[in-house]
C-alpha cells in the first residue's frame, strides 16, 4: 500500500504539534498569534516536506516554527525582539543574584515562573523554552537556532541567571 505524501507528513509532524505551538506561544507571547504562526509553519513544512533529508523531525519542525515566528514578529511587532548581547552589561546585571535568593526562587509556582519567563529578552526565553520546557539537547537547540553549541550554552547560562533575577522581581511585586 502506497502511503500518500499527506499521510507521511501527518505521521511525521503531528506528534510534534504541541511542541511547535508551545515554542510559537513563548516567542509571540500571545496564544492567538501562536496558533496563526504554527499554522503557517505547518504549511511551510508541508510545502518543503519532500525535501526533508531525515534526521530529527522535531528539530526540523521547530526550526521552521522559529523562523516563521521571527518573520511574523518582524512584520507585525517589536523590532527589539532580538537583543544585542553586550558582555559588560549582561555580566554586571547578573552579579547581584545571591544564593539565598536562588533558594527562595526554587519555591516559585508555575504561573510566577511563566510571568518571569515572559519578561526575558527573546534570545534567552527561546533557549530556555527549548531546553527546560521542551527538553531538547544542546545540540538540538543549536540546530534549531542555527547557533553554535557554545552560544547555546552561554545563552542558557545567562538566561537561567536572568530568569532567577526576573523571578526575584516578580515575586517581590507579588509580596
Summarize this, please?
The protein has helices at residues 5-13, 17-28, 31-47, 57-76, 87-94, 99-105, 110-118, 122-133, 138-145, 149-174. By secondary structure, the protein is mainly alpha-helical.
Name the helicity range: over 70%
Number of strands: 0
Radius of gyration: 18 Å
Overall morphology: globular
**Class per helix and strand makeup:** mainly alpha
Largest sheet descriptor = none
Q: Please give the count of helices.
A: 10
What fraction strand?
Answer: under 5%
Low-confidence stretches: 81-105
Whole-number average pLDDT?
A: 82
- How do the helices and strands follow one another from N- to C-terminus? HHHHHHHHHH
- The CA-CA distance between the termini, in Å, is 63 Å
Report on this structure.
The chain is mainly α and 175 residues long. It is built from ten helices and no strands. The protein has helices at residues 5-13, 17-28, 31-47, 57-76, 87-94, 99-105, 110-118, 122-133, 138-145, 149-174. Helix 4 crosses helix 9 (138-145) and helix 6 (99-105) crosses helix 10 (149-174). The radius of gyration is 18 Å and the shape is globular. 29% of the residues are buried. The model is unreliable at 81-105 (pLDDT under 50).
Amino acid at each position: 500500500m502506497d502511503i500518500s505524501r499527506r499521510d507521511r507528513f501527518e505521521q511525521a509532524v503531528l506528534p510534534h504539534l504541541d511542541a511547535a505551538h508551545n515554542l510559537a506561544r513563548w516567542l509571540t507571547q500571545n496564544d492567538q498569534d501562536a496558533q496563526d504562526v504554527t499554522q503557517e509553519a505547518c504549511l511551510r513544512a508541508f510545502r518543503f516536506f519532500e525535501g526533508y533529508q531525515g534526521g530529527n523531525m522535531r528539530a526540523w519542525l521547530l526550526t521552521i516554527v522559529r523562523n516563521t515566528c521571527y518573520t511574523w514578529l518582524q512584520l507585525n511587532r517589536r523590532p527589539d525582539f532580538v537583543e544585542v548581547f553586550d558582555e559588560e552589561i549582561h555580566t554586571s546585571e547578573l552579579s547581584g543574584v545571591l544564593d539565598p535568593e536562588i533558594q527562595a526562587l526554587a519555591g516559585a509556582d508555575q504561573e510566577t515562573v511563566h510571568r518571569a519567563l515572559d519578561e526575558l529578552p527573546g534570545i534567552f526565553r527561546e533557549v530556555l523554552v527549548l531546553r527546560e520546557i521542551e527538553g531538547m539537547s544542546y545540540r538540538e537547540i543549536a540546530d534549531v537556532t542555527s547557533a553554535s553549541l557554545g552560544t547555546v550554552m552561554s545563552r542558557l547560562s545567562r538566561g537561567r541567571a536572568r530568569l532567577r533575577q526576573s523571578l526575584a522581581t516578580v515575586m517581590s511585586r507579588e509580596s
